[in-house]
Amino acid sequence: MASDVAALLDAAADGIDFDGLVVEDTTYGYRFETPDVSERGIDASELAALADGDPYVANWRYWAETVGGRGTARRAFLRWIEGAGDGADGDGGGDDSRCDDSRCDDADGSERGDDPRRRLADLRDGGRIRAWGELRLRVRLTDAGAERVYDVRHRDDADADPRDLDDHRDPLDARDLVKYDDDGRYRPLSTAPSLPHGWRFVGLDGDALVDTVDFVYPATVANWHREREGRLDVTHWRETAARQTGIYDLVSDLPTDALAWATEACCADSQCLKRRAWDHDAETELDVPRGDGEFPCREPCSLFIAAAREFTQLEGEPEETYDLRLTEREFDQLGELVDAVADDRLDEIREADFDEGANRYRARYLRAKRGADLGVER
Amino acid sequence: MQALVIVAHGSHLNPGASEPTFAHADTIRATGAFDEVRESFWKEEPSFREVLRTLDSEAVYVVPLFVSEGYFTERVIPRELRLDGWDVEDWDSDGTDADHVALDAADVEKTVHYCGPVGTHDAMSDVIVERARSITGRDDLTDFGLAVVGHGTERNENSAKAIHHHADRLRQSGLFAAVGAVFMDEEPAVDDVATRFETDDVVVVPLFVADGYHTREDIPEDVGLTEDYREGYDVPTAVDDVRIWYAGAVGTEPLVADVILERAADAGADVAAAIETVRERTRTDADATAGD
């Protein structure tokens, strides 16, 4: 690989204006500017001397050659991680996105504009951090210069002792790592907020970082990038439902009210970290919070379709009046049971907390007394 | 740049469903034949709808890791990938000889080479043989019977065609004393496999993509290897005085990676060297297993 200086001289003919570095080949000689240096009318050897070891030149080279890929989601994501502007030439007007990791006290907090000098200083000194779903992504400069090194862990493990975390370097490992939650339960939805803890990816280059994220949260980077560029292709419920065949053909019959309940049930931030971008159709918004996630959900997913099939069948059943005798507190208890299951709180209810309607003994007592009436007789 | 996408069913319930897909993808990644290799699933992520946009390559070879042609390969996958102008007639198949067709996908600027499924490629017959050899630890199986097990018709008559296709080819190969096609849901039934052959040994190979309820629970019980799958069984197990060598889902055999590459090669991918590497590697692996 040619040196930074040789590459710079090569590119100078077309001019460079990137992350604070400006190089031009004018009729009066070269112009070389960084936030620290400003020289005009210099010759090639003077330019070479200035460029040699200059951090802005090395930074330009990293983005121009190591990352490359102008206009790709991969490049935009790597720029975003370190809070760099992502205009076409990399000199765009800063980045209004926020560092929303409450633990990222070694990043510079909210609303950072893109000051390349400050960014490079941060990257040398502890790095910069972004949250992506439950992931904590960190980028730093390598000791050698402008090359970046990335690491990834669960954001809850931000302050964990590295000795307590299993180290990984191969992005492919991520597929197995995130397959089960901390309790060993299979995670069929990658963006469910149930990412397991206790691991970290270290020493990743940019490509490996993006691959790792794509194995943990597939296609989120691609769709985030499309959304930023104003070309996210949202497919609304009506179109998705209409295209289903086979056993899912019937989901088109899901009433609009029920669709709203279904999104409230399945698409809330407590269940999925994507931000719902779709509605019933382009004209009919669902009056349900969309979520606050960084990356969009552009279409009802396969898990939602499978759940909707069940909901559609439930909605197809006629309502009936049941004559069931319960005390007031027994009636309340049914609500408490539904609440506890819906909020996945059963593990938190203490063995001897008899005030709690979803307490196991309380539930067993209700079943012993009313099981026959409720159709759950033992 | 060229990419390979292996599309498979996956599962919301069974965490093992995606494992063969990952394993074969990794075998192919290791050859470096493609700039990008990605797995995609009907029930897992990335979905068929969104996998193409995760790739930087302009040319994408899509190979379905499915056993037969039918509902998924003809309707679901082309629809979900948004393959403009897809017409099943382009495959010109009678149920077992789909090859490939080049199409544009509506949401990305890429050419998609959509290939026929892994299960009906002729090379899958070799994988069945390889599976039989690795499970028995023998190269010479001319004294053995072979039962190829399929699910059965359900809504897709091609499901049975794929089983018969390989059974016929293997019968003609002369590698086994006898070869039969048997099914879970239709005649001839897998239940009677021990009495269908005159050989002392019968290898039973389910033509399934991944191990799941059917291959781990139903078939071992149907064949009579065990009363209760949870109690396990030996390989071989004697049933009605016949030694049954039960192989489990053939889709987990490492050589399946070779069939995936063959599909891509048929569609024009430049992967000849990778095919050699994979054959060498996966067959060596199998021999090592057989020698244990």
What descriptors fit this protein?
heterodimer, A: alpha+beta, Gyrase A, domain 2, Alpha-Beta Plaits, 4 domains, four-stranded antiparallel β-sheet, 13 helices, 36% helix, elongated, B: 292 residues, Rossmann fold, 2 domains, five-stranded mixed β-sheet, 9 helices, disordered C terminus, DR2241_Fer4 (chain A), DUF7348 (chain A)
Mean pLDDT of chain B, as a whole number? 92
Number of strands of chain B: 10
What value does the average pLDDT of chain A take?
91
List low-pLDDT spans of chain A.
Answer: 88-111
InterPro entries (chain B): CbiX-like, Sirohydro_Cobaltochel/CbiX
Pfam families (chain B): CbiX
Organism (chain B): Halarchaeum acidiphilum MH1-52-1
Keywords (chain B): Cobalamin biosynthesis, Cobalt, Lyase, Metal-binding
List the helices and strands and how they pair.
The complex is a heterodimer of chains A (378) and B (292).
Chain A: H1 4-12, E1 16-18, E2 21-26, E3 29-33, E4 38-42, H2 44-51, H3 55-67, H4 73-81, H5 116-124, E5 128-132, E6 135-141, E7 148-154, E8 166-168, H6 173-177, E9 199-204, H7 206-216, H8 220-228, H9 237-243, H10 256-266, E10 275-276, E11 296-297, H11 302-315, H12 328-342, H13 360-374
Helix pairs in contact in A: 1-2, 4-8, 10-11
Chain B: E1 2-8, H1 19-31, E2 36-41, H2 48-51, E3 59-64, H3 71-80, E4 100-104, E5 111-115, H4 123-136, E6 144-150, H5 158-173, E7 178-183, H6 193-196, E8 201-206, H7 213-223, E9 237-239, E10 242-246, H8 256-266, H9 272-291
InterPro entries (chain B): CbiX-like, Sirohydro_Cobaltochel/CbiX
GO molecular function, one term (chain B): lyase activity
Pfam families (chain B): CbiX
Written overview of the protein:
The complex is a heterodimer of chains A (378) and B (292). Chain A is of the alpha+beta class and 378 residues long. Helices cover 36% and strands 13% of the residues of chain A. Chain A is built from 13 helices and 11 strands. In chain A, the strands form 3 sheets. In chain A, strands 5-6-7-9-8 form a 5-stranded mixed β-sheet. Chain A is elongated and about 95 Å long. Mean pLDDT of chain A is 91; it is low at 88-111. Chain B has 2 domains: 2-120 and 253-291, Rossmann fold (3-Layer(aba) Sandwich), CATH 3.40.50.1400; 123-252, Rossmann fold (3-Layer(aba) Sandwich). Chain B is of the alpha/beta class and 292 residues long. Chain B is globular and about 60 Å long. In chain B, α1 crosses α8, α4 runs parallel beside α9 (272-291) and α8 (256-266) packs antiparallel against α9.
